[in-house]
Amino acid sequence: MRWVEVERPETKRISRATATKVLRAAVATAPDPLPLLERLGAALMDEGGHREAIAAFDARAKADPARFTSWGRLAQCHNEIGEPATALAICDRAGGHGARVARARGAALEALGRRDEALESYRRAFGEDETDAIALDAVLRLLCRAADAAPLLAFCDALPATARFDVQKRAFRALACSRLGRREEASALIDPERHVMSFRFDPACESGGVDAFNARLAGWLLANTGATPTPRRDCVHDYALRHMRAPLLQELRAFFRQSFDAYIAALPALGLDRLMPPPVAGDIADGATFLRNEARNGEHVHRGRYLTGVYYVHTPQAIRTNVERRGRLAVGRCHETAGGHEPVWGARYIAPEPGMFVVFPAHMFHDVVPTRCSEWRIAIVADVEPAPIGGRELPMRYVQERA
């Protein structure tokens, strides 16, 4: 595979809290604050301030309903605070079948136990907007939990044959095959024992060894990333890392490329060469991940990617010395996603050892066991992202939105 580097110029960022503060001030001083109220509501929603967001959206909707466009966001806010009946009424009021409204309607119906109707709404949302990854995930989730797995398999097979959907097709096809008793097909796609490889980072001699390198990298990450407030304050993902070009990161990225090349060379031995042929060219897409206390990523795959790697920067001593699975990477685990079904491939729990880079297919389900300690567990997640060739667009970005 040829490595390229997609142009991602470094940009100055402001935190969500700062953006919200600026919008509040603008609403207070603008001659016509109504359009700004929708932007303020969206910013508050991103921060997890759903009740305040509702107030901002409501003010705009009541004053000028004809030009209010955020019905789906308003309905979703009510879903988030446990008011699905209100959310459903808002969707009915909105009329039409916009993708965001359809998705919010699906969430409300699902919360109300009307699963068949919810699935229909999620399907409508995805049908109207194929980039709506949340709607697609919802369709797959509900199909996973249906009594018959055949519709899930049929849906996976019917997804467009583009790189955008490769990960979902492989992951959920494996689940469908597992549920249908097609063990060999399922294990050929997902095998946590066979399809996971580990690589050890050996930094340049002047770095003073991997421990010294990681200590400097942890300090740099804590100073430059992870400060943006999120609704889950003990689980922070900073995807702006990919726009940064610090020397420590560049040295590490060279190691990531070498490791990914070694994994790709091993595809025939892993039995994956025909199931997931490598892209013609690829780029590294990385982000910093901070976890502590009871936080976890949630079971997920990395849509739009090819390979996923996790590099461990800092592991709290409390995790290193415990005999439990705290802080471990749970590769293959998808019990919740599958509605209680235990897939034929099982799960593998990997201890987060600093300096280790764990690589596996991007379609392999994974999660992190909560650390149950107040110190940050710091890792860098690096993916192989198929690069644009001949003017084609990049595939769908990985967006971590797990409740």
What is the gist of this entry?
The chain has helices at residues 16-29, 34-47, 50-63, 71-80, 84-94, 99-111, 115-128, 133-144, 150-158, 166-179, 183-189, 210-224, 247-265, 267-270, 317-320; strands at 2-3, 197-200, 235-238, 281-291, 307-314, 329-331, 348-350, 356-361, 366-368, 377-386. It has 403 residues and is an alpha+beta fold.
Largest sheet: 7 strands, mixed
Gross morphology is: globular
Mean pLDDT: 90
Question: In which range does the helix fraction lie?
Answer: 40-55%
InterPro entries: CHP02466 (IPR012668), TPR-like_helical_dom_sf (IPR011990), TPR_rpt (IPR019734)
Keywords: TPR repeat
TPR repeats: 99-132
Organism: Methylosinus trichosporium (strain ATCC 35070 / NCIMB 11131 / UNIQEM 75 / OB3b)
Layout: helices, strands, pairs:
Layout: E1 2-3, H1 16-29, H2 34-47, H3 50-63, H4 71-80, H5 84-94, H6 99-111, H7 115-128, H8 133-144, H9 150-158, H10 166-179, H11 183-189, E2 197-200, H12 210-224, E3 235-238, H13 247-265, H14 267-270, E4 281-291, E5 307-314, H15 317-320, E6 329-331, E7 348-350, E8 356-361, E9 366-368, E10 377-386
Parallel strand pairs: 1-4
Antiparallel strand pairs: 2-8, 3-4, 4-10, 5-8, 5-10, 6-7, 6-9
